[in-house]
Design goal:
This protein has one domain. Helix content is 42%, strand content 14%. The protein is built from 8 helices and 6 strands; from the N terminus they run ααααββββββαααα. The strands form 3 sheets. Strands 1-2 form a two-stranded antiparallel ribbon. Strands 3-4 form a two-stranded antiparallel sheet. A hairpin with a 2-residue loop joins β3 and β4. α4 crosses α8.
Length: 142
């Protein structure tokens, strides 16, 4: 991921305040396919298998389905006591792209920023071509 600002030390000190808000998205489909399907686009059935196995969801972001960890009242379900359940290389693009800010530790509010190329608007554009597959997988989930 080009331009990622991941700061493991600051994120560990913060203890996942951003994760307590909501899960990040895999904003780059190619990276998602590479991580979970060795770079190939899966069938809807294979995608459903992964979603169930890894506790992932297809989040509706402005009418576009995008893979993300599931969400609970506490935020991202991948957040554990000792950090993220995903390895650093598996984490959603938005999680890795967050630019940490020391102010977050000082006043307990989230001051981290997300570069626009990893934002929801960009993610919607990247995932739009895959909507037939994702909608088919969504129908299989219910």
């Amino acid at each position: 991921m080009e331009g990622a600002q991941y700061d493991a030390q600051l994120c560990k000190q913060c203890r996942g305040r951003c994760c307590q808000g909501h899960p990040g998205l895999w904003s780059e489909p190619e990276r998602f396919w590479r991580i979970f399907f060795a770079g190939r686009i899966p069938t809807a059935q294979e995608l459903v298998g992964l979603l169930r196995q890894r506790s992932l969801a297809l989040r509706d972001v402005g009418g576009v389905l995008i893979p993300a960890p599931t969400e609970s009242e506490q935020g991202c379900t991948a957040q554990r006591e000792n950090g993220c359940a995903f390895t650093t290389s598996e984490r959603p693009c938005q999680c890795l792209a967050l630019i940490p800010n020391l102010e977050t530790l000082l006043d307990d509010l989230i001051h981290c920023t997300l570069p626009p190329e990893y934002g929801s608007g960009a993610a919607r554009c990247h995932w739009r071509p895959f909507q037939p597959l994702l909608h088919q997988a969504q129908r299989l989930l219910v």
